[in-house]
Structures are given as C-alpha cells and as structure tokens.
C-alpha cells in the first residue's frame, strides 16, 4: 500500500518495437524527452497503452527509437513525476494514472429516463438505439395474436426458448454462412443477458478477460460485477491493434475475450478479415473463449453485412467461439429478445444458468420476435436508409456548431466517436445534462477509469431536427465562457 492505495505492478509487457510503432512520426523523427513523455501520456489516456503495462527498459527503447538513453530517462522521469508511470526495482516501469484521476459524473449509461425540473423531457443521446418500426411491429402482433392461445395451453416455460424461434435464429445463421442447428441456440432476454449468462458459466471471480478498449460500456459493467480482471485490445480511429492483442493474449492467457467486430460500439469500425483470422487463431492457441457480440452486425450502412466471425474458422476450429446477438438494434430494445449460439453442449449448460436467473423468457415477446426475425431482410433496408440520413444530419450539425471536433466515420453502427480535442468529456456531458442533453461521455467506454476523456459517443438514432438541436446545446455548453474542468490536468511540460 502507498498512501492507503493498493500498488499494482505490471501484468504484461510492451516491447520497445511495439511502443515505437505506436508513437507519432514527429516523435520518431526527433525524439525529445518532453515530446516522448507527452506522446506516451496521450497513448495511455486514449487507452492505446493499457494501465499496468510494463514499458520497455530505457536502454532498449533508446535503441529502438535511435535516441539517447538520456532522452528516454528524461521522458520516464517526467511521466513518473506526473503520475503516469511508476517504477520499482525488479519490477521495471509500468503505466498507471495519476492519483485522484478517475471517473466523474453519472455512472450508468441508461439515458435520461425522465424529465428535468422545468418539464422539458430533454434530448436523449445516451442510448444508441431506435424506436420500434411501427408497421412491422403491428404486423408481428397481428401474426402472434391468434397463435398465443395455442401456446398458452401449456405452462409457458421454455428455458431454451420457443422452438420455432430457435429454428428461425439457427436458419438465419446458416443463411449467413455459419451452419447452425436449433440445439445450438439459446434464446435470451437480449444480448446483455446473453453476455452475462456466458460470463457466469465460463468465468469465476478473479479470472482474467480481455475486451476491446474502448468497448460497449454495459459489457464492462457485467465484467466488473462478476469481479473479473480486464485486459484490453486497443481500438483507435485506425482500427484494432492486433499485434498488441496477440501479445496480450500470449502473455496473460485470458479465460475469455469479448469483441464487437461488426460496427464496433462505440467507433462503428468493422474488423478486417485478416484480423478476424488472427484473432480466431490467437484465442484458439491460448485456449481463450472468444465471445463475439453481433448485436450491431446488421447495421451495415456502407458495406454489405459481414458473415459471422465464427464462419471463418477452419472446420472444427470454432468450438471456442460463442456468438451473441439480439433484435434490439434491428427492431426494438423493448422486445428483450436475443440469443447465444454455441455448441449444443454449452447451450444446455447455459440454459441451466438461465433457469437460475429468470426461469424462462417471455413467450409473448418471443412469439412477436419470430415474424420480425423472419422478415428482417425485407424491413432492414428502410431502417438503414433512415440511419444513413440521420448520420449525415449529425455530421452536418457537428460541422456547423463544433467545427473543432473531429471523428472517423465507421462503415456502420449507430454512433460517432467524437474527439473533442481536450480531455473534458465528463465535464461536458455533465454540463450538457443540465441543458437537457444526455450523452455518453467517452470515459464510460474505457476499460480503465479516467481514459477516453477526449471523447463523446454521439448516436444518430434521433431525427435530424433533434440531432441539430442536441449538437447546438452541446456546442453552447462547450463554448460557454466558463472553461470546462479537464479530467486530466495538462502536465507542466505540455505547451
Ligand atoms: C454491442 C452491444 N451489445 C449488447 C447490447 C445490448 O443489447 P440488448 O438490448 O439486446 O441487451 C448493445 C446495446 O446497445 C450493444 O451495443
């Protein structure tokens, strides 16, 4: 303990070549100790170097950078003084955040869920999901109504899910290129329950898991509640850093890896095929369960929807892959229908975990879900067109009201991962909340509290006028004469 705080040393190592590959070209061209320290600090705050990662020895890094040993020593000294690294004889130098630097503001990403004191319902950008498509929901209810009495004659407990819905989910996987039998499907109350069940079955307290960084915030919460130690795979605007992911997997041999390769939440990026193959191979080598979250896979705005990641594995090579999905993004989160696809044996084990959690899913929801799923290919194009239009409207609003912010447009998904240029995401989200705009601050999506303070996740799931008004209010909060308190004090060496 130091100052009442538990001191944790490194749990994995970053090689000098790997660190050099992450540094910006200006630093590589003329490595100075201040610019090197600043670049490493930025990589830590952006989640591209995780916390508790051992940095290369000074001599090795100096060699890799073609810099003097004094430059690296000076940079490490600055990082140590400002609390971004810690060193101990025998344990080397590892990354951390300054004391007192951490999450601020509302914890849960649950939207406004209510009204402000003046009765204004506010604008809810905290949830990246659409309302139900009205026509298909009405049709599905009409289809379900005459079928309900037949089902209602039985007690209504179907721990694996309604047989016809299991078949429909299995058939869709098969059509998408991953041969699947109904016995390989468990119907769940959404993808979130699917993930929680998988984590409860496969992991025990203290087990190590890895996720992308940033990643879907409620998945991180599920892992925290299960008391799991989380490592990370960095996802920057340029995509997945698979080399570091492979070395993290090799060094930490986690029990489970969780990824959202198809229009990753929050960035909207699509994992390229070559990286999918490397991830499949790396997790197979380390005996790590690979949980692929396909909840957003159908929100393919600029490219065709990808085939399931597990379909890329050689025959018999995907048994360690567990795929989860739901109707929440293609249809409606209020339906609470999702699924797990795994081996039939694992599905039986998961059904036992589900019975312990909630006995069974709602028969009515599942009955309504069946025609929705079967009609997906017919109804999806209109939803995607709506989202494309709203994405353009959001981009126009951002360009008009906050030209200093930037973002990389992913080929799908429901939100933009906006870079504010300053570490004020939490303070801005809090101030915007007071002006009636509820938005996900970047830090909610980081594996380590206090990272991604430069970011906001802004979904384009509202209509163009509301999006413009929301961004106008965000801009007013950002440009307000009273400066926003940065979550990270700019260290004295930064100009
Ligand atoms: C990547 C991802 N996984 C899971 C979920 C949760 O989905 P569901 O409402 O089906 O539980 C979401 C919802 O935002 C999501 O974005």
TrEMBL record:
<keyword id="KW-0663">Pyridoxal phosphate</keyword>
<dbReference type="Pfam" id="PF00155">
    <property type="entry name" value="Aminotran_1_2"/>
</dbReference>
<dbReference type="InterPro" id="IPR036390">
    <property type="entry name" value="WH_DNA-bd_sf"/>
</dbReference>
<dbReference type="GO" id="GO:0008483">
    <property type="term" value="F:transaminase activity"/>
</dbReference>
<keyword id="KW-0804">Transcription</keyword>
<protein>
    <submittedName>
        <fullName>PLP-dependent aminotransferase family protein</fullName>
    </submittedName>
</protein>
<dbReference type="InterPro" id="IPR015421">
    <property type="entry name" value="PyrdxlP-dep_Trfase_major"/>
</dbReference>
<keyword id="KW-0238">DNA-binding</keyword>
<dbReference type="InterPro" id="IPR036388">
    <property type="entry name" value="WH-like_DNA-bd_sf"/>
</dbReference>
<feature type="domain" description="HTH gntR-type">
    <location>
        <begin position="30"/>
        <end position="98"/>
    </location>
</feature>
<keyword id="KW-0805">Transcription regulation</keyword>
<comment type="similarity">
    <text>In the C-terminal section; belongs to the class-I pyridoxal-phosphate-dependent aminotransferase family.</text>
</comment>
<keyword id="KW-0032">Aminotransferase</keyword>
<dbReference type="InterPro" id="IPR000524">
    <property type="entry name" value="Tscrpt_reg_HTH_GntR"/>
</dbReference>
<dbReference type="InterPro" id="IPR051446">
    <property type="entry name" value="HTH_trans_reg/aminotransferase"/>
</dbReference>
<keyword id="KW-0808">Transferase</keyword>
<dbReference type="Pfam" id="PF00392">
    <property type="entry name" value="GntR"/>
</dbReference>
<dbReference type="InterPro" id="IPR015424">
    <property type="entry name" value="PyrdxlP-dep_Trfase"/>
</dbReference>
<dbReference type="InterPro" id="IPR015422">
    <property type="entry name" value="PyrdxlP-dep_Trfase_small"/>
</dbReference>
<dbReference type="InterPro" id="IPR004839">
    <property type="entry name" value="Aminotransferase_I/II_large"/>
</dbReference>
């Amino acid at each position: 303990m130091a100052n009442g705080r538990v001191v944790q040393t490194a749990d994995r190592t970053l090689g000098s070549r790997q660190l050099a590959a992450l540094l910006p070209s200006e630093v590589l061209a003329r490595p100075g100790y201040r610019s090197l320290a600043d670049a490493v600090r930025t990589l830590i705050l952006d989640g591209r170097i995780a916390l508790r990662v051992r940095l290369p020895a000074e001599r090795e890094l100096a060699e890799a950078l073609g810099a003097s040993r004094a430059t690296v020593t000076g940079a490490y000294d600055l990082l140590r003084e400002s609390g971004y690294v810690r060193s101990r004889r025998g344990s080397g130098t590892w990354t951390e955040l300054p004391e007192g630097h951490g999450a601020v503001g509302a914890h849960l990403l649950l939207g406004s869920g209510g009204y402000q004191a003046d009765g204004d319902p506010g604008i809810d950008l905290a949830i990246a999901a659409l309302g139900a498509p009205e026509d298909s929901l009405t049709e599905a209810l009409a289809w379900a109504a005459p079928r309900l009495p037949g089902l209602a004659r039985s007690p209504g407990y179907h721990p694996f899910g309604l047989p016809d819905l299991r078949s429909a989910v299995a058939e869709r996987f098969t059509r998408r290129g991953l041969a699947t039998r109904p016995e390989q499907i468990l119907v769940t109350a959404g993808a979130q329950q699917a993930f929680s069940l998988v984590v409860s079955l496969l992991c025990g307290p203290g087990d190590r898991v890895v996720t992308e960084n940033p990643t879907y915030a409620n998945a991180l919460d599920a892992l925290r509640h299960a008391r799991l130690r989380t490592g990370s795979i960095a996802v920057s605007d340029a995509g997945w850093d698979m080399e570091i992911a492979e070395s993290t997997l090799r060094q930490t041999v986690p029990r489970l890896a969780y990824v959202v390769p198809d229009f990753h939440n929050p960035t909207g990026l699509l994992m390229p095929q070559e990286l999918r193959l490397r991830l499949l191979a790396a997790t197979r080598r380390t005996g790590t369960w690979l949980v692929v979250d396909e909840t957003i896979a159908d929100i393919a705005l600029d490219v065709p929807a990808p085939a399931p990641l597990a379909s890329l594995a050689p025959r018999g090579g995907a048994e360690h892959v567990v795929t989860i999905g739901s109707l929440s993004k293609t249809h409606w989160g209020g339906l609470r229908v999702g699924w797990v696809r795994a081996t039939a044996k694992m599905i039986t084990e998961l059904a036992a975990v589900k019975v312990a959690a909630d006995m069974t899913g709602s028969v009515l929801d599942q009955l309504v879900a069946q025609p929705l799923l079967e009609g997906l290919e017919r109804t999806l194009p209109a939803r995607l067109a709506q989202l494309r239009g709203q994405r353009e409207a959001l981009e126009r609003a951002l360009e008009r009201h906050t030209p200093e912010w930037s973002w990389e447009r992913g080929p799908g998904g429901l939100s933009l991962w906006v870079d504010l240029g300053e570490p004020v995401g939490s303070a801005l989200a809090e101030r915007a909340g007071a002006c009636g705009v509820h938005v996900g601050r970047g830090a909610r999506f980081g594996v380590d509290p206090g990272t991604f303070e430069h970011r906001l996740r802004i979904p384009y799931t509202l209509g163009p006028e509301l999006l413009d008004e929301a961004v106008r209010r965000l801009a007013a909060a950002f440009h307000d004469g009273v400066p926003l308190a940065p979550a990270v004090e700019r260290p004295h060496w930064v100009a």
